[in-house]
Design a protein that fits this description.
14% strand, 2 strands, Helicase, Ruva Protein, domain 3, 2 domains, two-stranded antiparallel ribbon
């Protein structure tokens, strides 16, 4: 089956994969969109496993104080390029502010920080490319 640019675009739009990865997935799966999504997911898991051994030695510490309470939050990244990114800095600051309003770590994990998880995933994807 011939892989068209429209097919590649559709797969990219639905998965966020890069152009070459989307094309390769479609080629490997004879144009089957669902199989290509699974193929990309499997490839992504393999990449994640490979990266899991890396040390995140860069990052930021944010401090927030209010009404006699204070928190210090450390968020690490693999590279200093991420740590210097203004969006990353804003995210760390927001995490510190939310941490100040909750009682403990479990409450912080459960706190609604808007699109924070989505933003973090975008940062990771940008760092991988």
């Amino acid at each position: 089956m011939a892989i068209t640019a429209a097919m590649v675009k559709e797969l990219r739009d639905s998965t966020g994969a890069g152009m070459m990865d989307a094309k390769k997935a479609l080629t490997e799966n004879n144009g089957d969109m669902e199989a290509s999504v699974d193929w990309l997911r499997t490839k992504g898991l393999a990449k994640a496993a490979k990266k899991s051994g890396r040390t995140a030695a860069e990052g930021l510490v944010a401090v927030a104080v209010s009404g006699g309470r204070g928190v210090a939050v450390e968020v690490n990244s693999e590279t200093d390029f991420v740590a210097k990114n203004s969006d990353f800095q804003a995210m760390v600051s927001k995490i510190a502010k939310v941490a100040l309003t909750v009682g403990d770590t479990d409450a912080l994990k459960a706190a609604d920080m808007g699109a924070m998880e989505e933003f973090a995933e975008e940062l990771v994807a940008a760092e991988q490319q």
